[in-house]
Amino acid sequence: MAQFTRIEVATAMKETGMIPLFFNSDIELSKKVLKACYDGGARLMEFTARGDFAHEVFGELTKYAIKELPGMIMGVGSVTDAAAASLYMALGANFIVTPVLREDIAIACNRRKVLWSPGCGTLTEITRAEELGCEVVKLFPGDIYGPQFVKGIKGPQPWTSIMPTGGVSPTKENLSAWFAAGVTCVGMGSQLISGEIIKNKDYAKLEQDVKNAMALIKEIRK
User: Fold this and answer.
1) C-beta atoms surrounding 143 within 10 Å
2) Smaller CB count within 10 Å for the chain: N or C?
3) Cα dist. 159→155, 217, 220 in Å?
4) 0.85 cut: is pTM over it?
5) CA 32 from chain center: how many Å?
6) Using only C-alpha atoms, what is the Rg of the chain?
7) pLDDT by residue (tens digit) across 133-151?
8) Angle between helical axes of 103-111 and 82-90 (0-180°, round to 10)
9) For residue 40, what are the contacts with CB-CB under 8 A and spacing of at least 6?
10) Three-class SS state of 205
């Protein structure tokens, strides 16, 4: 069961401005990555459940976060149907992120008052997601659409909260463009938690990179 309400999750997304995205089948490695992100200031983590037995890893990670990392909001991405969403919510997911807009997932999450963020690529999809109760829309893949798309959406719909994922990197130029366009927060995967960091198990570098990205976002949004 979720530890945080959907309003608390949406508020944390807006306040921190960033969600690290990560998946690995190694539970101990995943715990170290999660702790490095937490120590770097991140307060949300999207576990991109793309591998076999991913739910087992997520369950252990969530227990670890509840016990050791107070205030860490665990969520799951790459969810493709309501059954998977229900499974992850039973394992403690506080938010569900999907690559596409699916109404069955909206219903499953809304029934439990859990925040869900569907991948949308048109104004029609975004509007439908909001009609279904979506607080924060995922723009995916972000690099295909870019900041200009966000700016275009915010014109007729200034109330829309957008989180681009894909094509976001922890550089001042990239982050400035997204936040100037009006995004609520950004999702960052391999651009932040790189394969090199994982290979070298350089958790100190990851912690510092997360700190730097958070500081950049704070500076940009002044």
Assistant:
1) 14
2) C
3) 9, 21, 21
4) yes
5) 18
6) 16
7) 999 999 999 999 999 999 9
8) 30
9) 206, 207, 208, 209, 210, 211, 213, 214
10) helix
